[in-house]
Amino acid sequence: MKLSINLFMTLDGVSQSPGSPEEDDRGGFDRGGWLMPLFDDGCAQVVNGWFSQTSALLLGRTTYDTFAAHWPHVTDPEDRVADRINRGQKYVVTSNPVGDVWQDSTTTLGDDFLERVRQLKHEPGDELQVHGSIRLARALHRAGLVDIFRFLIAPVIVGGGLSIFSDDDAASTLTLTSSSTTDSGVTAMELVPGEFQQAVATVEDGKDSVQQH
């Protein structure tokens, strides 16, 4: 399976608490719910597309608990996202029991979760998908385990909050494989990670040009 990170994100790179002010207030974050005013049919179609490619979910404990409080109550048979979350295999990175909401479809991963993820990537299937779970996504990114990044980037600035990327990350260049923009101005991007690239602006034969390093 390939490992994909699927996140909602603001223009200033924050992925914390997109759904409601109460979703995730760690660090005193009080600007949650920033995506919902812009979440239109185009956003829903993008997210449906994400979940149509998953073989299993890999979640942090906070995201798992948020999902467990919401998705079991969504019983619409036409809701693809609810079906994949409620019925699909879920791996949760946690050191504590997760309860019995999805006990038949949930496996917990402990302190050695990075090695377990490496093993899961060798199993057959489409994608092992991370949704939300910002700190987990950051750890996977730093370990070089991510094959695909998908972002829904909202034209919103919140001025601080949890982000997958930080100042001490290794440099890399992401290659865009697809993109679209919804009617509300939310941009969907799919990217694959690669080696960091640099270039310099120069002048050749009187023409402005770019020279690769």
Question: What labels would you give this structure?
Answer:
213 residues, alpha/beta, Dihydrofolate Reductase, subunit A, eight-stranded mixed beta sheet, two-stranded antiparallel ribbon, 22% helix, 31% strand, globular
Question: Would you kindly provide a written description of the structure presented here, covering whatever features stand out?
Answer:
- It is a single chain.
- The protein has 213 residues and is an alpha/beta fold.
- It has a single domain, classed as Dihydrofolate Reductase, subunit A (3-Layer(aba) Sandwich).
- The chain is built from five helices and ten strands.
- The strands form two sheets. An eight-stranded mixed beta sheet has the order 4-3-2-5-1-6-8-7, with helices on both faces. Strands 9-10 form a two-stranded antiparallel sheet.
- The protein starts with a strand and ends with a strand.
